[in-house]
Specification:
The chain is α+β, with helices and mostly antiparallel strands and 455 residues long. Helices cover 42% and strands 17% of the residues. The chain has helices at residues 2-6, 76-83, 95-103, 127-140, 145-164, 169-179, 183-186, 193-197, 201-211, 227-238, 289-299, 307-315, 347-362, 368-384, 396-410, 415-425, 428-438, and strands at 35-38, 44-49, 55-62, 106-111, 116-123, 217-223, 261-267, 274-281, 319-327, 333-341, 445-451. The strands form 2 sheets. A 6-stranded mixed β-sheet has the order 1-2-6-3-5-4, with helices on both faces. Strand 9 (319-327) and strand 10 form a beta hairpin. Helix 4 (127-140) packs parallel to helix 10 (227-238) and helix 11 (289-299) crosses helix 14 (368-384). It is globular and about 65 Å long.
């Protein structure tokens, strides 16, 4: 449940058996790159030709997320995701959607702690029109009082419907705020009513001028394209857009494993009690990161065969369901286990069972077979995703998302392949070491959810 609601980062995994461009075992890159260049204004562009279908995906990722916000202005990165659809100098508010509808394409966006991403999937012969639309709103977005107020109300309604009035979500946000020590990490992406209502269109204009520029972005295009032709089109539409000067962002430091914290949240929308247990985790591509990805599979994310489901739901029958949300960030992330509990089961009892299963990992009590199953699932998940998902290697959109994110975060889109190798190289000993470092007995953030009666 919580993965579909909250996941803010694209899954960093891969598979070896491909259905596009590169045959399995051919020794080539997972996503072949046809062209990788940077314009003088700082916009980096990665092109990957795939002529299997007459479609193209355009992904533009900006290096701005909620961790770039300042106190008193929380929620601005997400608000600005909405503002980017309010029209620009040559494009009306509804024109972008109209273009996509008439050409049979799709458009969407997402804000996370680390970045904001915009993407379109279109017939490949319409790609120049998308460049015109995207470059126009980057160059001349309409940040007016009317547009700002409209989107402010939209975000407030989203906060009410998706967070405030949704079972277990207030407790989830509480857990996020507690597990981290630094405000930049801890505050919710959606922001607060007080911060949003005290802001103005002038604040939004300032945010745009500081964070939305070609030197703050990376674009990846995958599909039925001619790379040299597309390069010239990008120079034509984006080359004259000016760079922006972004204020320096203070380093966000978190101590791992951290300290234990506890809270109780009363939830009028929850029908049964719930329990969150969370720990800080290493950032993407850091020590223990790959082992933690496989621990996620072993403990929770392998469905009914997972360690915690088998113990809590099947054997002890104290829980109705077990879920998790592993939040991957460039900096410190978190590993969160969430359970809904049966009548008569106590929080202490369930916590003890969870820690007992984690103790097996710390002791290295997992078989090589179980670890290989976790690796196989991590690989197959990518292809099990919907073919139009930004986390699916089956689609041009998914591959473009991977290229853009790796280029923006780590400077090298080819690291997708290196990460796959690192996941596959994780040993039982690596699992043991990661579990010991992350799952400290005195480092868990625990939030109990107590139903208080439905409205």
């Amino acid at each position: 449940m919580f993965k579909s609601i909250c996941k803010a980062a694209i899954v960093l995994a891969g598979v070896f058996s491909l259905t596009f461009n590169q045959p399995a075992g051919a020794g080539g890159p997972l996503i072949p790159i046809s062209k990788d260049f940077t314009l003088p204004n700082g916009l980096r562009v990665i092109l990957s030709e795939d002529h299997s279908r007459p479609v193209a995906a355009i992904v533009t990722i900006y290096d701005v997320g909620s961790r770039h916000e300042v106190k008193g202005k929380s929620g601005f990165a997400h608000l600005f995701e909405h503002m980017m659809f309010e029209g620009s100098q040559n494009i009306s508010k509804s024109e972008l959607s109209h273009y996509l509808d008439t050409m049979g394409g799709d458009v969407n966006a997402q804000t996370s702690v680390d970045y904001t991403i915009y993407y379109e999937s279109v017939p490949s012969n319409m790609i120049e029109r998308i460049f015109w639309v995207e470059s126009d709103r980057l160059r001349s977005l309409k940040v007016t009082d009317e547009n700002f107020k409209n989107q402010l109300e939209t975000v407030k309604e989203e906060k009410r419907s998706s967070y405030d009035n949704r079972p277990y979500m207030p407790a989830y946000l509480k857990m996020q705020q507690m597990v981290f020590d630094n405000w930049a990490n801890a505050h919710p992406i959606i922001g607060s009513f007080a911060d949003l209502e005290s802001s103005s269109a002038h604040d939004a204009q300032k945010f745009f001028k500081e964070h939305y520029g070609p030197n703050k972005a990376c674009m990846a295009i995958v599909g039925d394209i001619d790379a040299p032709v597309v390069e010239e089109l990008i120079k034509k539409y984006y080359g004259s857009i000016a760079r922006v000067n972004t204020p320096s962002i203070p380093a966000v430091n978190e101590v791992i494993p951290g300290k234990s914290k506890f809270a109780v949240v009363k939830d009028e929308y929850a029908e049964v009690p719930g329990l969150f247990m969370a720990w800080k985790t290493p950032g993407m591509r850091q020590t223990d990161y790959y082992a933690m990805g496989l621990i996620e599979k072993l403990l929770v994310d392998s469905g009914k065969s997972s360690m915690l489901y088998q113990r809590l739901v099947k054997k002890e029958q104290t829980c109705l369901d077990v879920d998790n949300y592993t939040e991957e960030r460039r900096g410190t992330g978190n590993f969160c286990i969430f359970v809904t509990t049966k009548p008569g089961a106590t929080s202490k009892q369930i916590q003890g069972s969870i820690l007992a299963e984690i103790a097996k990992l710390k002791a290295g009590k997992i078989s090589a077979t179980d670890l290989q199953k976790a690796k196989n699932q991590l690989e197959s998940d990518l292809f099990a995703s919907p073919s139009d998902s930004p986390a699916s290697m089956q689609s041009a959109l998914g591959r473009a998302s991977f290229l853009a994110m790796y280029a923006l975060f780590f400077g090298d889109p080819k690291l997708v392949d290196a990460d796959i190798a690192k996941y596959m190289a994780v040993s039982v000993s690596d699992i043991q070491k990661a579990a010991r470092r992350v799952f400290s007995a005195n480092a868990a953030t625990i939030v109990e959810v107590k139903p208080s009666g439905k409205i």
